[in-house]
Amino acid sequence: MSEFGVYSEVGRLRKVLVHRPDLSARRLTPGNHQDLLFDDVLWVERAMEEHDAFVRVLEEEGVRVYRLASLLADVLAGKEARRWVIERAVHPMTVGRSACGSVRACLMEMEPGALAEHLIGGLTRSELECIYLEGMTRSSLQVAASDPDSFILPPLPNTLYTRDTSSWICGGFTLNPMFWPARRAEVVNTAAIYRFHPLFSNGGIRTWYSCLDHGNAAPPASSATASMEGGDIMPIGRDTLLVGMGERTGGPMVEELARVLLMSGAVERIIVAQMSHDRAHMHLDTVCTMLDESTVTVFPKVVEKIRAFSIRPGEGERIFEVTREEDFLGAVADALGVGRLLVIPTGGDEYQAAREQWDDGNNVLAIAPGRVVAYDRNTCTNRNFEKAGIDVIEIAGSELSRGRGGGHCLTCPLKRDPI
Questions:
Q1: Is the entire prediction scored with pTM above 0.90?
Q2: Interval 93-104: pLDDT, tens
Q3: Which of 94, 115, 184, 404 is the 20 to 30 Å CA partner of 370?
Q4: Which positions are annotated as active-site residues?
Q5: Which residues are within 8 A (CB) of 381 and not within 5 positions of it... i.e. 6 or more apart?
Q6: Strand 371-375 vs strand 391-395: parallel, antiparallel, or unpaired?
């Protein structure tokens, strides 16, 4: 089997990409946390402890863990990769035309680890101007109009949730056009790793879709129809891909993904789950994840209202054959070849269920069939799992969850066995 490739949601997890909270989390404030898509500021030291404990669990379970910042620093040691990243992070539309050349030159001189830290954690005017930008207030409107603590490069705290910027499907990956501007620059860092790091650059890995083909990390239009995020993409196995279509992933992008995957034969069927738009369930994996080959956890209040469609290869001039499914979970069961899924709902009464869905009770990570990692705060949901015979490894996540993401969101699987 290839060194990388994801062929299911619950087969044995072999390799993942994660990101530990860092400088970007320290730059969340009461004034900017909403713009940066967090519900509150983090107690950063505790978030680091929680993340370290999560990584220890993965490693103890035999999962090979790759750290995004470390891989990024590796590739930034090369001049070609460094220039490629800087040109996409620093351009006239981010720093202004007059400052562009100088800022690029400054970053080219940075030590790789420091550059990786600032590409993720952000870079303020004061961090550069004393050494590098002397005199730029007289030549750059962008610099002159900013205060010393203004960001020349914005922090990217959502890098913590590595699931979203890229999605591994069978033997290839997508680089996703993110919905919110606050997340779009994350894709450049991920793309640099896949493009330049020797782990991935030795050939044989398919790029199913790259938003960078449009010239930068932004989608071709800033609307949900032109965006797609990894929390909505689940290769559930048996030649089937499950895709959520809601706040962060739009129909045109689902069709674009379906076209390349169906034409290549990577999958034979794509089940689309049409969802309502709500921050509480921004991605499909916030209300539905798989626990083993025939068991799923769901937040019923949302999942029962999902409209489902299946996309298969068309005939003749038709690219696709689209059929409406009577029942979302029934379609998933049919694709997996099981008579009926065992459905485990979010635990507790109506109020507790709403609280635990908000606290990522349904956003769990399967390490192997029937063995999952879940936040310990979701006591009712975890108890439901255990009663159904699911082995639950509990971790703390009171700080990690403040951007709305559990174990599923915190990991980008790079290699997972089929079922």
A1: yes
A2: 888 888 888 889
A3: 404
A4: 409
A5: 297, 344, 346, 347, 348, 356, 361, 362, 374
A6: parallel
